[in-house]
Amino acid sequence: MLLINADDFGWKKEITDRILTCFIRKRVHFASAMTFMADSERAAELAHETHLPVGLHLNFVDELTAPQAPEKLREHHQKTAAYLKARKWNQILYNPFLRNSFDYVFQAQWDDFCRLYHEEPKRLDGHRHMHLCMNMLLSGKIPKGICVRRNFTFYSGEKNPINLLYRNLLDRWLKSRFICTDAFFCMTPLNRGTPLQEKLRRPLLLAKSSDVEILFHPSNENEYAFLLSPEWAEVISQAKEK
To answer: What is the dihedral of CA 137, 138, 142, 145, to 10 degrees?
Structure first.
């Protein structure tokens, strides 16, 4: 099964509108919604009107742009952002001194999602994939049994062996506690490196026998244009037929 997700719903008005356009035209299946962002409130209202399925898009790193974001939340969020941005390795290191800050930011965003969408999240992922940072994974805050986004799918030779080993071990751990797809790919960037048809070949082939998530960022001009293209409409149509 092919599952198409659009990230950053509610971050900004333009992004919200682009995702809704893609959903209405049946180019994406669901979206990941941000809370305490500039367009979070309006985005939730539009999601209810259009019946767009959404999950929680945790944000530990980018500024909370909603005017109503509580000052205490901003303080804890600034601590998590500073830590995760300081060094790439901090994502895989557990910092006991920031446990309360990570827990506070998670719970605030979880509760606000419940307020906005009138239900608990059934799916969870993270802005810049920071839901997989060690402070989040070891917190025990994510309810067992919900859908959680796994690592990107890479194959031998695409990453160094230690990197691949870590990803594989983490994905096994995730699958033992949560619902995860069999593979996960991102189309960013479409205008660089591997040709589009080659980027799509693997996920489409795997989707014939496995659950495969493909991530798009409609905030990217090239990705948005591709999502609305006849080529992508054909891909979606063929995937439904299989």
So the answer is: 80
